[in-house]
Amino acid sequence: MTLAALRATPLFADLPPDALERLAAGAEPMSLRAGEFLINEGDQADDMFVVVSGELDVTKRSGSSDIPLARVGPGAIQGELAALERGRRMASVQAVTDTQVLRIPYAAVRDLLSAGPDAALGIIRTVIGRLRGMEATLRQREKLAGLGTLAAGLAHELNNPAAAIRRSVEALDEAIAVRDALHPPHALTLLHPAAPAALDGLARADAVDEISDLVGDGEMAASLVDAGWSADELRGALGGMDAEATRDAAAWLAASAKVETLIGEVRMAGDRISEIVGAVKSYAYLDQAPIQRIDVRKGLDDTLVILRHKLKAGIEVTRDYEPDLPEIEAWGSELNQVWTNLIDNAADAMDGKGGISIHAARFDADEVRVSICDTGPGIPPDVASKIFEPFFTTKPPGIGSGLGLHISHQVVVRHGGRIDLETEPGRTCFIVTLPTTLPKNAIGAPRET
């Protein structure tokens, strides 16, 4: 049965009889019940499998969901890529129906590759096709994940000023009602305090005590001090009034001050929302040409706004931008994705606590260099050598697709630039060098006429 099953597999159909027999001798039949896993993502690989009968689903973990990559049946090869490099499984394979497979250990795979060029080329074609299909699927997923990150950041950032507006409006309604219930002299309604002075704690306490002696209420006095009233200004405004009239007039001034303060809070929260919306529009380059002259400093700042919810807990960000940095020709939204990947990875590497430094400067007459460094643990040499490879990730299954840095590398190369890594314990820097003008052979770059 084993020999017949291998001969029926397209990959092995043209193998010489002796090579096929050696392969069959090393193969081990296995049975799976529906629902059982043949391969678990993240496990160490040392063999590959040939499906004899039944169907299996191939999935990759992303967050809390499994992304379907393929459904395979008789004649399909599974696990060949990880088996060839003896690495970690990049996807899971689960039986949909009762299934029969052949397990081919690494030694037999190695023997197969030495059997001749046809077998080796067949496996290479299978691997390349598998990688292309997986990358296409996961690239789309990566875009959706990027939108999810953007949406989560926006929801968090917009919620705070929106909640502030809601609280201020509720308090404003009450403050206006309190003020309108008071009836001060008409002349008093035309008076306004000087601009609030910057008082330290002790000076403010003294000012509150002085005005409290004048109006007879500590809370009212604090509101008047915060609004900018001084004791001398109040004496001038309230001069000639008896004690009851002074208290009523001071209450109206304090209520008016509270109304002004709440209006100011609403204005500030509205400005914050406008800032966030403006940053998002700039980040995505909405309503703008795909290729244009851009300021990388603006892109970095917009990215920090988008990621602010993730960075502000325990991460200190420092920026050092060269004042006369030249603009560069670029696909702005693609470069912003690069900054997002690098800054997001830096935050993850530090587990939410540490420092990120961003430096942007002219590197050469026609190049700009951006360095994004973190104070994380560093990247070991064996990992650093693979950091830009597709599907390579040190994160557990479902946390990272292994495409973020690969895509970032491709974007930078598409711009005619390069991305380098410098790392040591306690410091990791990704250094992106970009030309000020897109190379003429860049796909989609403007052509001379």
Structural features:
48% helix; Jelly Rolls; 5-stranded mixed sheet; 14 helices; alpha+beta; 3 domains; Heat Shock Protein 90; 449 residues
Task: Note down, in words, how this protein is organized.
With 449 residues, the protein is of the alpha+beta class. It has helices at residues 2-7, 17-26, 80-85, 106-113, 117-180, 201-215, 218-227, 231-238, 243-284, 296-306, 308-311, 332-349, 381-384, 404-414; strands at 28-32, 37-39, 47-53, 56-62, 65-72, 77-78, 92-95, 99-105, 291-294, 315-321, 328-331, 354-364, 367-374, 418-424, 427-435. The protein has 3 domains: 2-115, Jelly Rolls (Sandwich); 153-277, no CATH class; 285-435, Heat Shock Protein 90. Helices cover 48% and strands 21% of the residues. The chain is elongated.
Total tally of structural domains: 3
Structural class, judged by helices and strands?
alpha+beta
Structure summary, number of beta strands: 15
CATH class descriptor name of the largest domain: Alpha Beta
Q: What sort of overall outline do the alpha carbons produce when their principal axes are compared?
A: elongated
Task: Find the CATH superfamily of the largest domain.
Answer: Histidine kinase-like ATPase, C-terminal domain
Radius of gyration: 33 Å
Please give the alpha-carbon distance between the first and last residues: 66 Å
What characterizes the major β-sheet? 5 strands, mixed
Known CATH architecture of the largest domain:
2-Layer Sandwich
